[in-house]
Amino acid sequence: MTAAEIAQQSVYRGAWIIFMLANICVPIISLLIWRTALANGAQLPVDERYITTYFVLLGFVTMATSSWMAAFLANDIRLGKLSSWMVRPASLLVKFVANNLSEKFLKVFALVPMIGIVWWIFRDSMNLPADAGRWALFAISIVLGAVLVFTIDILIAALAFWMDDVGALVQARVIIASVLSGAVVPLALMPSWSRGFVDHQPFRYTVSFPVEIVAGQLTGRDLLAGLGIQLGYVVVLGALARLVWAAGIRAYSAVGA
Amino acid sequence: MTPVHALPPVIAAHDLTKTYTFHQQTAGLGGALKSLVKRKYETRLAVDRITFDIGRGEVVGLLGPNGAGKTTTLKMLSGLLYTTAGELEVLGHTPSDRKHDYLRRIALVMGQKTMLWWDVPAMESLLLHKDMYGLSTAEFDRNVAELAELLEVEHLLNVQVRKTSLGERMKLELMAALIHGPEILFLDEPTIGLDVVAKARVRSFLADVNRLRGTTILITSHDMDDIEALCSRVMIIDRGRLQFDGGLDDLVRTAQPRKLVRATYATPVDGTRLDGLDGVTAVDVDGQTVKLEADRERAGVVMEQLTRLGPLVDLDVADADVEDIMRDLFLRRSTLGDAS
């Protein structure tokens, strides 16, 4: 199914390049702004190497853990398009999982060369752990982050079983997540009074935490605790999404002929 | 051959009921603002305690005016909707459980919704179904070859779906729905929007599928030609209630117990001689042509009278058109319903 999705989506190859250019522009601009601030003597709780590594990796992690499913799934529920999938012997979400995986597959082709160039430019001022274990944890954390984002999307989209339009919720989630996930400003730069909340809220584990594993500053204990919390969120939100989804299917009205 | 009704039913519905809850909003800005603060919810009974059995291999037409409850019934049978009350068993399953074993044995085709992916050739969707339904390559190839030949779509399998015409797309939809050899096929307006040639092709294909594979077919359609061509049995649903369940012939006899007779003569005739003839109504004489309606039991006597009117050139005796019968039936019911 993922292969079929790739075949379908590769029709829009031009769009992928533009998407990815947009995806990498914000981190690069942020990187340049923060480096300039540091060069001008700004006092930050992190150094230039951390900032540089953070923003170089940010574009990749954001892409890898992102999901655009909520709006599509909500639309399918609202317009009754889910019906076509409900009469087939497969998970209803299989289409969206395949769509998500194929999206990632195609984005990697467009994004990796761009990140490679930025990486090469800043290669001397980045923290790159020599330890293969850290890179393995980075990969695991990205997978968990992707599952977490997907689960949050299902939860939001499932509200369309009861609400006429979840567009506002989807938009609110995008705005909140962009701040709380660390996609705009590194969470390490958030005010100290907000630390307890910022460090433990779920959005941190969708983007910031995987990047932090490589960018540095996390002790072995922090790493284990972080992965535990990330896994916990995946399990709890996954169970909640399952419950809401099952209740939603009961309320589904399969609009339209 | 075993009679259809001697076998256990593949579909058994008892007091099947479905209600929908929705909110009402008055038009205009005022209504919109009011609905922001307070919403008035209403419950609508879409299907009201209907009971029926369908045997294996039957082709049954589900008829009724718009909003009568026939599509809701079809959606409950295919597992898309939970029932509000009543019992429903299809192929030994409760459809709303949507067990994969059940879904593998049915198919649903909705004339207004596509099951195919638009941006890729239909073959991609068929291959997806091959995996989803666990078909072996040999079985898949055999089914593709058989269905493509019956539907005459061999040349379309590798064309992007969105580049095909509506008629071609419907044929491909049917192919995708039948590739796994379902035991029951639910069809919701399968010929909607198709031209006469495409409609005829789809009808003859469905008849072939029923004859060759023994597939049970339940079809909703507003096109009476679909029903006449395919269905030996019809169920009429109106305002959620099952108003009629029986053979199409029975329906015609019950709803319109008269024969339509048209006689053409070599010379103009005097139709007044038919006035007052027992069992004859609505006589219309136009020069050399006489049109009238006669009671079935009196048809023989009427024919005899007609041969005496003048030199007969042509005589045509027919049942009333099913389309007209349905229109009269729905109009009468809605008038009665409105009056009550």
Automatic annotation (TrEMBL), chain A:
Keywords: Membrane, Transmembrane, Transmembrane helix
Pfam families per record: ABC2_membrane_6
Transmembrane portions of the chain: 12-34, 54-74, 105-122, 134-162, 174-193, 223-245
InterPro entries: ABC-2_transporter-like (IPR010390)
Entry superkingdom: Bacteria
Protein name per the record: ABC-2 type transport system permease protein
Originating organism: Kribbella pratensis
Automatic annotation (TrEMBL), chain B:
Record's keyword annotation contains DNA repair: no
Any one GO biological process: response to antibiotic
A GO CC term assigned to this protein in UniProt: plasma membrane
Protein origin, superkingdom: Bacteria
Protein name: ABC-2 type transport system ATP-binding protein
Compartment(s) of residence: Cell membrane
Principal place of residence: membrane
InterPro entries: AAA+_ATPase, ABC_transporter-like_ATP-bd, ABC_transporter_ATP-binding, P-loop_NTPase
Keyword Transferase: no
Organism encoding this protein: Kribbella pratensis
Residue ranges constituting the ABC transporter domain according to the UniProt record: 31-264
Molecular-function GO term, any one: ATP hydrolysis activity
